[in-house]
Amino acid sequence: MPNSQRPLLNSHQNQRFAIPGTGGGISPPGNVYGRPAQPSYQQPPPAYTNNGPAAKNGAALRTVPISALNPYQRTWTIKARVSAKSQVKHYNNARGPGKLFNFDLRDAHGGEIRAVCFNTQLDQFYDLIEVDKVYLISRGSLKPANKQFNHLNNDYEVSLDAATTIEVCSDDDSSIPRQQFDFRQISEIANMDKDTMVDLLGVVTSVSPSSPFTRKDGVETQKRVLQLRDMSGCSVEITFWGGFCNAEGQQLQSLCDSGSNPVLALRSVRVGEFKGRNVSTIGSSFLKINPDFPAAESLRQWYITEGKNAACTSLSMGGSGMGRTDDRKTVEQIKAENLGRSEKPDWITVKGAISHISTDNFCYPACTTEVNGTRCNKKVTNNGDGMWQCDKCEQSTPNCEYRYMLQCQIQDYTGTSYATAFHDAGKDIIGLPAQDLYSIKHEDQDDEKFADIIQKVRFELFLFKLKVKEEVFNDEPRVKCYIVNAQKLEDTSKESRFLLGPIDSLLVDDGLGPTPGVSGAAAVNTGFTSNTGTYSTNMSGRSYLLQVSSRQRQCQLGSVLQMQSAWALLQRLPRAGG
């Protein structure tokens, strides 16, 4: 690679470059069937197509640049490298069920285009197409590209048909660039619009196991979540879908489990705004683990020497960084601190309970149409003929999926506030899918069972992660709270450690010093004195006594609800010397 094209070592951001070829790799097959190249005097096997060979008498094919393709020309041949390949997608339309996949092509002139294969052509070409290999492709129909789902720099895409010829090139043409990236800093994602396509380079700090996920159309897929951070001081949650969870996802998890934090390059991933900011793979995304270009090495060295222990802000509600996820507030503070009144929403965590749930309209029928891995989920209406009409998709489908839209009243010791919980958060609260709860109420008409399910939810403690934002209704601004995550307060040890934070700050204010273990010490040793005796806990072999001699001091230690939680823990501890 020319030096002018290499990114600077001190920053990988906003650089555009290609991954260099790797030496010592396995050469591509000599022909489309993967057999050794035949001598020139033997008749070569037929090309991988329905029609005749791509060239006659061994003569070299005349190829045209991708940029020269147009809908009025049917006979052409391009030589291009596959830069991305999607998974097989299934669909239903007026003509019945079908399937498709697509792959992106790039040639030596910098042109790029997407090729789409349906049904028969999918069966014919899917196993032949591999990312990074070079192909000769002849004939196909050019159609306008749907820019909502096709981000390539081309107004057309090519639909392969019965006349199409695809042949693997026996030599890897070095004039055709490999994968190219246009990396952006993770911190920039905070200001990007939803559905923006972006390239990222970061260090993987954690990977969750792959888990099954049932789509609304009943199709089961896989989901895997990881955390990615870079030198901008921010991290973001990355969600792998489908096939990305297997080979690449398992490799990343194995590396992280072994104590290694791999560098990951991602091309063409989509920005979302669910639970803060997040990024998801799509069918044509491309991943490169531990790439060998200079920017990746620079990032790796930064993480080893300083980045691993540097402060990091998570842009995602589910992130593990020291970001807005840990901003614990009370219900009263939402109003007192004018949360949600700025241009961007506030993301906070509130510990409280649900005191009321509106059961009149707790769910809605949602559109199940899925395009490029993204489900519509907008409300549909029953046409009266068994079909459900979606105004956004402008089409009718025979099925819908009921999704939560819970109107709740959350309460803590400072007051109450109304909040809305959509599908995932609603499922966290109720413990059942919306479809099941709808069936109990409206199909089974089991009012007693329905009431029992709702009653069990009331006044159970949760950690609510809220999105607080101002919205305008009838020209009147109002602050709305949305529950993006609801976690049952079952881990008392974790919550107790959190409660030690305010206690520690009081000790520092009084000059008593921090509680061991809370501010970086190796262990926590806390003891409490009340009017009825001394209670202690020994978490590292010795006791640490804190005198709490009056009701006034108890109030200083924190809120009433926090003290109740701490006191419940203390009541279960053995008395000192007893």
Describe this structure in words.
By secondary structure, this protein is an alpha+beta fold. Helix content is 17%, strand content 34%. Strands 2, 3, 4, 5, 6, 7, 8, 9 and 10 form a nine-stranded mixed beta sheet that branches. A five-stranded mixed β-barrel has the order 12-14-15-17-16. A hairpin with a 2-residue loop joins strand 28 (401-412) and strand 29 (415-422). The protein is globular and about 80 Å long. The chain starts with 15 loop residues before the first strand and ends in a 7-residue tail after the last helix. The model is unreliable at 1-59, 319-326 and 514-561 (pLDDT under 50).
Draw up the topology in text:
Elements: E1 16-18, E2 48-49, E3 77-85, E4 89-93, E5 96-106, E6 112-118, H1 119-125, E7 134-138, E8 141-144, E9 156-159, E10 165-168, E11 180-182, E12 197-207, E13 211-214, E14 220-229, E15 234-241, H2 247-257, E16 263-272, E17 278-280, E18 286-289, H3 294-305, E19 313-314, E20 328-329, H4 331-336, E21 346-357, E22 363-366, E23 370-371, E24 374-375, E25 381-382, E26 388-390, E27 395-397, E28 401-412, E29 415-422, H5 423-430, H6 434-443, H7 447-457, E30 461-473, E31 476-488, H8 492-509, E32 527-530, E33 533-536, E34 545-546, H9 551-556, H10 560-571
